[in-house]
Design a protein that fits this description.
With about 200 residues, this protein is an alpha+beta fold. It is about 15% helix and about 30% strand.
């Protein structure tokens, strides 16, 4: 407002000058290796509209990552970095999870790298009506393991060290964790990853 040439602009063009500004904001999230040759799974809302993606491993090494494929409807994205011999996870059967079963959430809440929190499976098949980044296909695992901003895309692990979910959303009216976290089931992720790896997108 009140720029020196506003009157000039309004007089000759009859409308306020539209000043477009570009904002770039760094986003942090979590991901995990699926293969020893550098495929990584994370949330789509972490990588969407990104200019550059950098992956930092547990050992502190940084890699430029390429987006191999993404699916906004399930909020999953597949990344690829160059290299070999990466330690990778194994998926478990999310359909076999029981309410009350112990799980661990691993991630980078508020940039606190490699944080592990524990909780139980609070519910299965949970539907959310929150809008925004909530995936269209909803069959969430609900957990009370502490999940905060930065945990998105991290693994939800059972007591057999198998990934049974991918942390995606929290219900937090005040902005912090209140024990209502939600993860995308591993069984859904397995199907999506296969298509992202093969075609770069999910065909329905």
């Amino acid at each position: 407002q009140d720029m020196p040439f506003d009157d000039f602009w309004n007089r000759f063009f009859g409308q306020p000058q539209q000043r477009e500004r570009e904002f770039r904001v760094p986003a942090q999230g979590t991901g995990f290796f699926l293969t020893e040759d550098g495929y990584i799974l994370t949330n789509n809302h972490i990588t969407e509209d990104s200019d550059k993606i950098t992956v930092t491993t547990l050992q502190g090494e940084s890699y430029a990552a390429k987006l191999s494929g993404a699916d906004s409807r399930t909020d999953l994205a597949l990344l690829k970095i160059e290299g070999k011999g990466f330690p990778y996870v194994k998926f478990g059967d999310s359909a076999g999870l029981k309410v009350g079963e112990w799980v661990l959430a691993i991630g980078n809440p508020f940039g606190l790298e490699h944080t592990v929190t524990a909780g139980i499976v609070s519910a299965k098949g949970r539907q959310l009506g929150l809008g925004g980044n909530v995936p269209e296909y909803q069959d969430f695992i609900q957990t009370d393991a502490a999940i905060n901003r930065g945990n998105s895309g991290g693994p939800l692990v059972n007591m057999r060290a198998e990934v049974v979910g991918i942390t995606s959303n929290i219900l937090a009216p005040a902005g912090g964790n209140i024990g209502l976290g939600f993860a995308i089931p591993a069984n859904m992720a397995v199907k999506v990853v296969a298509q992202l790896k093969d075609k770069g997108r999910v065909i329905r």
